[in-house]
Amino acid sequence: MEYRRFGKTEKKLSVITLGGMRFKHVWDDPRNEIPTDTQEHCNVLVDQAIKHGINHFETAYGYKKSETALGRTLNQELKIDRNSYYLMTKGNGHSASAMRQMVEEQLQTLQTDYFDFYAWHGINNDEILQQSCASGGAVEELLKLKEEGLIKHVGFSTHAPLNVITRTIETDLFEFVNLHYYYFFQRNKAAIQLAQSKDMGVFIISPNDKGGQLFKAPEKVRNAIPHATPIQWNARFCLRSPAVHTLSFGMTENAHFDEMEGIFPSSSFYQDSDLVAKQNLDAMIMDDPFTSFDGYNKTHEFNEINIAELLRLRKLWKCYDMLDFAKYRYKELREPNHWVPGVYATKENIDKIDLAQIPQGFPIKNLLEEAHLAFYESPIENHIKKIEPLKLKLI
Per CATH, the architecture of 3-278 is what? Predict the structure, then answer.
């Protein structure tokens, strides 16, 4: 295992974190009733993590059964010395009183006197940023809890667009940030660089699942990385930057710990084999003529098509054969929300697009129609296979 200083917190974290959102049945209600196999699963994963040198455990109030199971594992089942690991949890109380009440409940649930790290969970748009960071609000209450010693370090987690992330960092209220960044989603690189300039800890969220479901990467991607698994290579891609300190690994079974061992030393990214693999993957962008415009200069409200994300998913499909991943993410648009903003690219929604910020001659409507036909799976019938791909060309 390797360890890195988690920014200004000065804590030395293992570069791999055990996240708590994938224990068996963890998303089932009621949150405080833990089935035997859920508890056993948590016990095994935490035990293996410790044996492999992992010293950072991360969970959240929103992960339902996770906090209860993890609290029992650490304190009752395995009885791990509290000074031997760091504990991070998250919550999103929308007022000072609600925030304090949530933290007090989480302390009891996780059976601890303090949290090493506490993140406001989901600063995903400007409205949430303003509300959570307002004077007398939730984040201010977290800072009071820090003064009282119940929280050692306050940060935030985010699925927001880059401009919201950077504005949140620039408030200077936080010591660390949890965000998405990996090979197949590099848009937040500037946020990581800004965090580094402020000496913040940086924790990468879900590089194996949201990073492209790399545990079932298509053959095209696997062939580009013949010397390692896509998961191992992507972990080294993330850790190649000294600004990145730790990342979750989505471990759910013992074999995942064996695969984790293959990422070390993380500095090997700068060896020829990893660089050649990156060149192989970079070259695949040329497999589609429409990747030059990513749509990210257009602001989207939650009731509009998220052009940037749909063009990204289309690129992953066309250039990397990641159709299954694109379908998986597209399903999240069934109900617009701030975690995965946007709506389906139906004809009705496509017709609402303001073309003023789209390059002249770029067939945005046709591309979005093509993406919808490929990604959308009707609950009644899968009609996609009956549709020939649209033949498009640049004008």
Answer: Alpha-Beta Barrel (3.20)
